[in-house]
Design a protein that fits this description.
manganese ion transmembrane transporter activity, Put_MntP, Mntp/YtaF, mainly alpha, membrane, manganese
């Protein structure tokens, strides 16, 4: 494989990982207002990262099966899925959803938080499985980005409260829509 192609794929996957982790960052900003201890911030961040590894991995496995059976139709569906996920993120950035920011980060509340912010990674994993993306690289980038952005959001939220939340989801959704459109244009 050409080195330029590999670098392009890595940059694309890194941008997607960043975009999909923006909701964890946003929710972390709000949750950071709870004045969590650093140990709790680390637990929340690493568990969120683990969910961002498991969810896209499951999606990629299902996506690979779909691509074998449905070919180009699956690629189109994958592009539309990315556009849908991005649109959903943008839509939620314009609606004040207080409940999402104040899930208690303990016990079942922590699991619900991690599951909620990683659901879009499952859908993206489904699309990436259809496209045949590199599994290990993808899940490691998703896990790393979500761990880092969750921790960053919690720490910033602890200091500055909910300053950037809306804009980060808006940016993340826009990036996913751009990748979805790029995918559909490549089919033409």
């Amino acid at each position: 494989m050409d080195a330029t192609y590999i670098i392009g794929e890595l940059l694309t996957l890194a941008a997607m990982a960043f975009a999909l982790s923006m909701d964890a960052f946003s929710v972390g900003l709000g949750m950071g207002m709870l004045q969590l201890r650093l140990r709790r911030i680390a637990v929340i961040s690493f568990l969120t990262g683990a969910f961002h590894v498991v969810m896209p991995l499951a999606g990629m496995m299902i996506g690979k099966v779909l691509s074998v059976h449905f070919g180009n139709v699956a690629v189109i569906v994958g592009g539309l899925l990315l556009i849908f996920i991005g649109g959903t993120m943008i839509h939620s950035s314009f609606h004040d959803n207080k409940d999402k920011s104040f899930i208690e980060p303990y016990g079942i509340g922590l699991i619900i938080f991690c599951m909620t912010v990683s659901l879009d990674s499952f859908s993206a994993g489904l699309s990436l499985g259809i496209f045949g993306a590199r599994v290990l690289v993808t899940v490691l980038l998703f896990g790393f980005a979500s761990t880092l952005l969750t921790m960053t959001g919690l720490l910033i939220g602890k200091k500055f409260q909910n300053l950037f939340g809306t804009y980060s989801e808006l940016i993340g959704g826009s990036i996913l829509i751009a990748f979805g459109i790029k995918t559909l244009l490549l089919m033409i």
